[in-house]
Protein 1
Amino acid sequence: MINYTEIARQAAIAGSYQSIGLNYDDYLKSEAINEMAVLFGPKWKREQKTKLDAERYNEDIQLSYDFEGFDIYHKRYYHEDCKIWLDLIESLEMPIQISSINTNYKICDNSGRKINKDVKIWRFTDTETFLNIDFEVYDKAKDNNEDDIVFNNTVHVKFIWAEPKHQQGYFITVKSLKRFSKILFDTGTDYLEGWAARINHLPVKYKKRDEWRNKKVLMKDSNRKLSKNNGIALLAFWLRCGWIITGNKKDDSLISYVSPNMYYKGLEEDKDMWSDSFKYARNLPYEI
């Protein structure tokens, strides 16, 4: 079951392993797979292997869509699913434009079957900063056939991007990120998640003519201590913005941006739940 307790636990583990020079994959392999397989036997191990293969397949999905083919919505022309966002944007007087495009991709279910999935990709554009967030909305409880997932309304972020001439660094990114997430959190989204991928097809403003996103850097925590693990610069950037590490694939990290509701509900369960999760953050999502 995926819920806020599990996400907080994963984020704390990830932060701890990052600071001592290990990666999250070490924990997943040694603890979650090997030990549990010994406890539940060969049949369970085979089932988990099938699920793991499906997860790996789904993690490697390369979603493609026309970046220029989005339908733009406003109060007189909109898709019914975004009306609640449009109403909130109007009431808060936010400089946010909403658009979307339909696409599809093939996923693998837990039995190993390949299934075509039709999806709508949404885009919020901050017309002041020109930053964009492309995302898919989905219900994790439905996808996992579980009704007891506590926080299941999820936004999977495909890209947070701007054209190179509009890429303005940390403070502008946080400004737009707070706007985007407030719209989503105030209308029922529990958390955002996405991959801090070191390389993608989008153009980036270079620093001294170098690709900076996959450069190895030491991360400084809230106590000004440097991590012993050289993470990539892009991951360090998003951790400073208030995202937390909640998973790993190959060389990339799954990161999440939790809602205030999710954050404070977690504290009710355990006052120390998030203590290590935001160790690298300068901006905190629950302050929105």
Note: Residues 51 and 87 are 40 Å apart (CA to CA).
Protein 2
Amino acid sequence: MEPSSKKPPIKKKWIILAAIAVALTVFCLWYTRPIPFQDLIPGTELPPCQQIRVYASYEKDISQREEYELTITPEDPSFDPLLSLFTDRSYCRSLRNLLPRGGRIHNTQPGDFEWLVYLDYEEPITLPDGSEGSGTLFRFTNFFGTLDVSVLREDWQANTDQQKQWLWAVMEIIQDHETTNQ
């Protein structure tokens, strides 16, 4: 008598493995696809941003750190250039979001910088679930080169085109704003 459990043929195993590999590849491509700023909250029309709040630091040298705390309104000449750096961009979720997230540390070196940018909206918008929201709808965090995007308090690590240059462009506007308004 033959045993009741038959081993599947090797060819069938390879087909199953290939199907799993294709499914994983499709998922990774879908998950990390670029999402334009205007689609970060699907199905909504954003009103004009009312203010940008910024908290930033720049390591000038080992013992000297520059700190920035700004509130930039539409009347300010820095407002439109800074806002457009965020709104004219697409963001890709990182696959790291699928792993447990622990704390982060960074040993700072001269030239290192970090910033936290809040985009605030006073006019309420209708959210995808039918509720209304206003206030801080978006938060962008640069933790020494790692970008986090928070949309309606949902946080995810992200990547964007030419990220290193873009992060620095945001920091330059922050530094220039502080210099011109002192």
Note: Residues 51 and 102 are 31 Å apart (CA to CA).
Protein 3
Amino acid sequence: MKKNRVYTVNSLLARIGGNYKIDFFEINVEESDAAGFASAAQAYYNTKTDEHILRICKSSEIPRYIVFHEFTHILDTEMYAKQDSWKYMALSGYTEYHAAQVELMIMLGADSIQTQDFSFTVDVEIGNSTVRNYLNSRHQLVVNMMNRTDFPRDIEALKTTVGVLYNYFGVRSICKMYAKDYTEEVDNTIIIQKLSKVLFEEINSFMVGWFNEAQVELSFVSYMKIMWPMLQSYFGKE
């Protein structure tokens, strides 16, 4: 694998284009514990003002792969959902998938999608974790979040959980394409229970590889197939 190029936050945002600003925040521990998830960086987009906001936790050192993950959200929004609120919502699944693809490629030291094969047991940038362990931990996070008694606790928790599922699909897609010794080792029972077997199998088979524009737009449909029934279920609890 080639060594990563070094970019500053501002130079990367300039390459992506569009209107943007950087905001700094502190992680709310109580909210993170309640959600079962915390993020050290977040990308938001205002469809009315056409402004991107990159939020960065000021008390944490943000790894390069997380920053590139968030840059990918900004780029995807510029390409596929510019000033369109419906597309911005429907893009949520694909952009989490794509950002996770980029994230793992950065961890592996790649500087393009034309990368060399790697071993499923090679170490990545998180401690002494292997790619296999990292992939399986992403899946386990989805299971843990869906297995909570209060799932979906609120709309934001629902969107975050489904986003983590697409993160898993993104990491898995890189492993399927480039890991020479990849094997699938996860139990999808909980996810199938929450989504339905038919819907899970549709998305599970579709979210593979690098997407072209037509595939990105098709992903809008599958993502909304997940969200609408679960939103209706959530509102039914009100």
Note: Confidence is low (pLDDT under 50) at residues 1-9.
